[in-house]
Amino acid sequence: MSFIPLPRNETKLDLSAFERAVAADSRDNIRGYIITQHNTVLHEHFWQPYNAENKVYLYSLTKPFTMTAIGLLADAGKLSVDDRVKDYFPECDIPQKLHDMTIHHLLTMNTGEPDPGISEDAITRDDWAQHFFDGDFAHEPGSYFRYNSGASHVLSLIVSKVAGENVLSFLRSRLFAPLGFDEIYWTEDYHGNTVGGWGISIRLEDVNKLGLLYLNGGTYNGKRILSQAWTAAAAANHCQSSEFDPRPDWAAGYGYQLWRGQHNTYRGDGAFGQYNVILPQYKAVITLSGETHDMQHTLSLIYQHLLPVLDDSPLRCGKLTNKDNILSLDTGKKIIQAGNHHWITQSGENMPFGSPSWLPMAAATDIACRYCRNEDDTITVILRYHGTPHSEHITINLHNKTAACPSNATGKAAAWQMSL
Questions:
Q1: What is the mean pLDDT of residues 240-257?
Q2: H or E segment to which residue 323 belongs
Q3: What sections of 46-185 are H helices per DSSP?
Q4: Nearest of 346, 342, 307, 303 to residue 326 by alpha carbon
Q5: Every domain of the chain and the residues it spans
Q6: How distant, in Å, are the alpha carbons of 124, 182, 269, 388 from that of 185?
Q7: How far is CA 93 from CA 83, 156, 189, in A?
Q8: What is the CA radius of gyration of the chain?
């Protein structure tokens, strides 16, 4: 396979506040992250000695790849999520109370088993399937959510049985090649089956591509890979998870091997801070890798620092528009453009708000502009005048549709206000 990089945004974002926050707190310990929006890399950063070419061991972020293989088989009519699991394992001794367990129950971690599923002693065994069925299933399948890596490995075994090849081999031509993945490493059990619940090592950018596939309803670069019905079912909330884990981003529910999260997000994640967060509202995917000791804390920092950058929703003001993270303010004399957390430089000729008293009147100066949206439904636009030490802050109020410069760098009140 040949690695095909995602397209890059030419404009560089200033996300130093987020990067300082995760670097300052030992709980986060992020190695690197990549943000895509509208199918384009908006920003990426790796802390030394890590780089974008490194393979990342994903732990349980492996699970969505196994789930995708099930989806491809379901789309092809080779299996159904309503199929009974026991029908795929005639060689196993399966207790009567598990006869109604379905593939859907495996996908949603609703097997009824209160234990972790395949425990550490399974590594020394060659019968992982029987080990799973021998578990202490205290509840009826479909009635009890418990995060369970054993269920994920049983999904992998079903893929091997139906497709005649393991998940890694099955996905090479159907997922990895079409999405332009680099080489992949994936742990196998004693029989050559890829481990369904953990074990994959790939580039962080390739993880992000899987997120884009689900964000776009199963298409990638205009090509249909998965059905929209499958991606919608995978992202939907199928069960309550709050009793298992009360943390906000683990208590919001569970889909098909994907967690539901705050802000209408869903994600795959793995131990120690491997995340692939899909944000439909923002048409974005945020992928991180690290050695995190508080996974909720890292997600909270993402919401605090990165969601405002991704907010390119339409603004409802007549002279104010935004597109592709660029805000345009029509002052009547000039259109000022500002980047969302990044600078845009333009000519200062025909000053939009009248020349500040400190600005040399004899010559125009370039202006660098950026903006951010605030929690109180206002927007702050910062103007920095090249060739001078001065700057101005414009406050845009989306409620009363006005824009004003309350003061300039000298602290003196500005003399203008405009209606939008």
A1: 94
A2: strand 320-323
A3: 63-75, 103-107, 128-133, 149-163, 167-171
A4: 342
A5: 16-310, 320-419
A6: 21, 10, 18, 54
A7: 18, 19, 20
A8: 26
Whether residue 387 is predicted with pLDDT greater than 60 in this model: the reply is yes
Which tops the pLDDT comparison, 255 or 18?
255
Do the bridges between strand 326-330 and strand 335-340 make them parallel or antiparallel, or are there none, so unpaired?
antiparallel
CATH topology of domain 16-310: Beta-lactamase (3.40.710)
pLDDT at 280 over 80: yes
Residue 190 vs residue 73, higher pLDDT: 73
| E strands in 38-161 | 40-46, 55-57
Q: How far apart are CA 402 and CA 396, in angstroms?
A: 6
Which structure tokens are listed for 70? Answer: 């099930």
pLDDT at 413 (0 to 100): 43
pTM: 0.80
Q: What single letter denotes the amino acid at residue 271?
A: A
Distances (CA, A) of 98 to 145, 146, 161, 254, 314: 15, 16, 19, 21, 51
